[in-house]
Amino acid sequence: VQLQASGGGLVQPGGSLRLSCRDSGLRVSFMGWFRQASGKEREFVAAMTWRGDRKIYSDSVKGRFTISRDNRDNTLYLQMNSLKPEDTAVYYCAATTSGSYTLTARADVYNLWGQGTQVTVSS
């Protein structure tokens, strides 16, 4: 398994969760998080370069979610604060090993995907 996501669960509105995604020491250009709610298309959440010098967020999570990475243990994080019911989804981590693209929200650029972790925001 090249990407292993964890940290999902059930949380009340306004609560916090931190997702983790460990990779097997891949040489990646950038990594990100996507999510897919039941009956909806997969959507971009956040992404960052391997060096951490650039980060991008979807408008729906900007100011509430923070993406980060610890290169010492090859782990990508998504700190999610002020969670809302509409954040309920399966969250996927993804990475690209291609050096041909700049940081992007386009899902088709990411060639590696984790298995997904469920986040449910409900009272």
Key attributes of the depicted protein:
about 120 residues; mainly beta; 7-stranded mixed beta sheet; 4-stranded antiparallel beta sheet; 11 strands; globular
Give your account of this protein's structure:
- With 123 residues, this protein is mainly beta.
- It is built from no helices and 11 strands.
- The chain has strands spanning 3-6, 9-11, 17-23, 30-36, 43-49, 55-57, 65-70, 75-80, 89-96, 112-113, 117-121.
- Strands 2, 4, 5, 6, 9, 10 and 11 form a 7-stranded mixed sheet that branches. A 4-stranded antiparallel sheet has the order 1-3-8-7, with no helix packed on it.
- The protein is globular and about 40 Å long.
List strands and helices in order, with pairings.
Blueprint: E1 3-6, E2 9-11, E3 17-23, E4 30-36, E5 43-49, E6 55-57, E7 65-70, E8 75-80, E9 89-96, E10 112-113, E11 117-121
Parallel strand pairs: 2-11
Antiparallel strand pairs: 1-3, 3-8, 4-5, 4-9, 5-6, 7-8, 9-10, 9-11
Q: How many strands, what sense, and barrel or not for the largest sheet?
A: 7 strands, mixed
Task: Find the count of extended strands (DSSP E, 2+ residues).
Answer: 11
Give the H and E element order: EEEEEEEEEEE
Task: Specify the structural class.
Answer: mainly beta
Instruction: Work out the helix count.
Output: 0
